[in-house]
Amino acid sequence: MFNDELLGIIYRTFLVLIILFLIAKLMGKKQISQLNIFDYIIGITIGSIAADISLDIEKDLIAGIVSLFIYGIVSLVITHITMVSIKLRRFIIGVPTVLVEHGKIIEKGLKKSKIDLNELLGQARQGGYFNIDEIDYAIMECNGKISFLPKEEEKPATKKDVNTKIVPTGLVANVIIDEKIMNNNLKAMHKDKKWLDHELKIQGFNSYNNILLATLDNEEKLTIYRKNITSEKSTVLE
Question: What CATH architecture applies to the domain 96-151?
Fold first, then answer.
């Protein structure tokens, strides 16, 4: 009996793998490489059904396979609908969200995308931007990835064209995050709170209120990002 069950599981597993391969081909390369919210839900459901009918030999195999194909076809239909209808595409897939605009961090965009400032900074570093002051635009795409557009003067071609001598600036320290001083980072840059308060006053800040982020580089350049005013409007992407 044990051997029969084991053989049944092996047979079902290989059959389901073949079915999943066919469904993947049906859904197309774009569907697999760039998952949106709907694709994510469909993927989880298909995976759950596939595992269930592979391991539970008491489940109706044919019914499970039909269910897999139905989900694959529904996904294909939704993909076609979102290609021909802008309104449905916005509703089902969503629209990109601006996180940084003209070098200014958009708090509303961060909240809408459900990410915090530290995560944005981490994604920027992964994208090769260790100083957020180098970024002109940052956009959260519908698939959850963040696209970065550097400022014009930070583009490699621009520096090369004008034959500018590139001086390495090293790592940039975040000395204030969400109105709070990052004492360890400040100490690592060989500065203290007294120096920071003095620099803030020079730039017109008498306190840490309304400071979303402040960065300090090796050239002792302190860059401050204010918290956004709620009435301000940011770029809307379609």
Answer: 2-Layer Sandwich (3.30)
Please name the fold of domain 170-228.
CRO Repressor (3.30.240)
Tell me the two tokens of residue 207. Answer: 């306190």
Q: Is 102 helix (H, G, I), strand (E, B) or coil?
A: coil
39 Cβ contact list (under 8 Å, min separation 6): 31, 75
**CB contact set of 121 (below 8 Å; sequence gap of 6+):** 132, 174
Beta bridge partners of 176: 181, 214
* Tens digit of each residue's pLDDT (9 = 90 or more) over 154-210: 666 545 555 555 555 566 888 998 888 988 888 888 899 999 999 999 999 988 888
For 66, counting Cβ atoms within 10 Å of its Cβ (0-12 exposed, 13-18 middle, 19+ buried), the class is: exposed
Per the listing, tokens 């963040």 go with: 146
Calculate the dihedral angle through the C-alpha atoms of 91, 96, 97, 100, rounding to the nearest 10 degrees.
-170
Query: Look-up: residue for tokens 């989900």?
Result: 71
DSSP 115-144: --HHHHHHHHHHTT-SSGGGEEEEEE-TTS
Average pLDDT in the 72-101 region?
82
**Residue-wise pLDDT tens digits, 13-32:** 888 888 877 877 776 655 55
- Closest by CA to 169, choosing from 203, 202, 104, 215, is 215
- Is pTM beyond 0.90 here? no
Spatial contact of 72 and 23, defined as CB atoms under 8 Å apart: yes
* Boundaries of every domain in the chain: 2-91, 96-151, 170-228
